[in-house]
Specification:
Strand content: 15-25%
Strand order of the largest sheet: 4-5-6-12
Number of strands: 30
Radius of gyration: 25 Å
Largest sheet: 4 strands, antiparallel
Structural class: mainly beta
Number of helices: 9
Distance between the termini: 55 Å
Amino acid sequence: MIKLPQNTTEEKARLRSHRTVFLCTTMAFLIASVSAAEASGGRLSYEIVDTAQVRCYDNNAEMEYPTPNADFFGQDAQYIGNEPAYKDNGDGTVTDLNTGLMWQSDPGEKMTFKQAVAGAPKCREAGYTDWRLPTIKELYSLILFSGTDPDPMSRDSSRQKPFIDTRYFKFRYGDAARGERIIDSQFATCTEYVSTTMRGDQTVFGVNFADGRIKGYGMRSPRTATDKTFYVLYVRGNASYGKNDFKDNGNGTVTDRATGLMWMKVDSGVLKAGRKKDGKLNWQEALAWAESLEYAGYSDWRLPNVKELQSIVDYTRSPATTNSAAIDPVFEATSFAAEGGREDYPCYWSGTTHAGLSRASTAAYVAFGRSFGWMPNRRTGQYMLMDVHGAGSQRSDPKSGDPSRFPYGRGPQGDVIRIDNFVRCVRGGAAEPRTSGPEIRMRQVPKRPQRMGERSGPGNRMLQGPSVMQSRESREQPTGVIINEEGAFKGYTLFAPIDSTTTYLMDNEGRTINAWRSDYRPAHSSIRVVAVHAYRHKPASHCTVRRQPYIFTFDIGCKTGYYITEEFHG
């Protein structure tokens, strides 16, 4: 049994005044000061809609439903919540049968944040006059983690599945013809960040139903130097939705009477969880720790799904403005020295996998501290650490691995990669155990027999060096290969993952022949050359091509960056 933390005067203190951050209609504030459940006649005012994730995953791919005490037991799919349910009203509106919220079904064309705010009171969809721009918690109620996370630089959405129910809501990926990325399908809310992101940008939170994330978006687009545009779904009804009603139970737990969930008052940092007793765990460890936890007299704790976890974010708070985590002061959040040595607050793991079409190596977390990212200085090319998405964002981390492989993060904004995150467990609510799911469609790649001679290069030069051979034999998981079919052609693939500073030379069964480390992440282009040299495109503020005497001359157009050449053994 874990000893309960002692309640202090500071812990009991409650914040009495908040900076107003919601630009919603006056109606949202005319709520009687009684508990949410009482106000709705016994029905919870803040029903958390399930994520719709029904498949189980290990650290890389889909798996059979694990049994109690087995690895990866206790993840999102194994607990059934309030299953998504909608009604098409036939008049351009959709009613969520769980939350009681009524939505527009078609977001129409994109608009700026100012236009979205101004358009709400003018909206007359289906004859109603009380439409409002949703809060981030209202809009996030629509997200479904049955979607697939696409490559942000891909232009093909034909096989992708968005993170919203397209049977009821119209959805469009980013339009490449307009210079957009596939992931440029951000939906605006009325929830502004109380601090700023990037280089002091005024920021509004939005949900991206293309890639399944919450991010803070600057009002201005850095790519177009104009006001950023968003899709907008106006909402009406249940003005209590998203409003927490916390009760400190005096035993180390906190109940949200609006959602019916009970939470740990403290987090894994206070309870000294993890290999280093610092509260930090990878995803598999987080699942196991939550399932085995006995705390405050309860043994049915679990890792929350990502929608449950997001429900306790307090968007009126941030490290920069309140010197605290983005959570109600009734909770205790561990502070620690984050990247760059600055004091900050945790990202908490959820039990929800953030899966793509052919991989399931990341899981969703919610940042209760700054959402750090590495952004290059436009003049010098040096990377700078900054809050790129805001406290209260929802992103994802690799479930396992070495964070040092991501010295400058990953993704378009260089999201900081930690892998070892904190945990705040939950119990209760609508969660019911589920023991089986649909037929597996994404399988782990089996380790295939080594056939060295068959894959060796000209004169066997590529396989020289005992360290290279040893690293190949000891590798358990193929690099960058998910589907390994018979009949793969004989040859090699040279690639640099977008999130990594390592460039790999692989055979076509996924075995690493050699690897080169760089100080930079790759840019989004590739060159095919007939030479035994490796080219890596380094993002920078100016385009120069470094030519060595032994490399042929070529012309290339590029917006930014230069090329680095390396010999095979150097």
